[in-house]
Amino acid sequence: MKIALFFLSIVGIVFSGCKSDKLTMATAANFAPFEYISGGEFQGIDIDVAKIIASELGKELVIYDMEFDSVVQSVASKNADIALSGLTINKTRKQVIDFSDTYFNAAQMLIIKENDERFKNLKTKEDVIKAVNKAKSLKIGVQAGTTGEFYSKGDKDWGFDGFKNAETISFANGAMAVTAMLNNQLDVVIIDEMPARVLTKTNSGVELVDIALTDEEYAIAVSKGNEELLNKINEILRTIKQDGRMQDIINKYYVQQK
After folding, report:
1. Domain presence at residue 114
2. What one-character-per-residue DSSP string does 142-179 give?
3. What CATH number has the domain bearing residue 73?
4. Does residue 86 form part of some domain?
5. For 79-134, what is each residue's pLDDT tens digit?
């Protein structure tokens, strides 16, 4: 299937419209293993799912790569047909977009330096929260616009209390946050589980505190009121869950810890 790729760095750019023979997708391709660029091509769980959806709809998939903060707005303003970008369902986003059925269950997790004894031997979510709150002058790295940022800073709409005694520092992506931590600019990083597994696998000197801090659901976003497209997407999702293709995609990208 032919896929057109667009790399956008200008926030708020207006696309040329969603033609009937194309399925336009908004994403932020710096969130492995869900979306990333390798060898000049988009890859990842969300990319593979979008390819199937476009194929089933008989359309050409056109991918717009942008900052994560712009993904939801691009669909809300109808500059893209769909968004797949590890999007967690929540009521704030539901005010401006509609979500498909869930296709992945996710959680926030903590990445630490291997020699950081403050976060060793923790058993529960409550243990992690207590350890973070206990640490003095803690600097937490997050990816801007993600659930991890809301979790760390605190947000009433998301139901997160946040860490009041810590400083939350936002980065364009998780890899930059981990690099900052390794350069002693941060103490820990909070990010979604699957990207956390990739980052701890590909960076020496860090490890994952393998405890879920949240219970989240990823879904595909479409513009408000686009029930025809939403129904078709849900039908395709049900099919690929039932026939095993969805699990095959997840298994393809799943990262075992070191």
Report:
1. yes
2. EETTSHHHHHHH-BTTTTB---TTSEEEEESSHHHHHH
3. 3.40.190.10
4. yes
5. 999 999 999 999 999 999 999 999 999 999 999 999 999 999 999 999 999 999 99
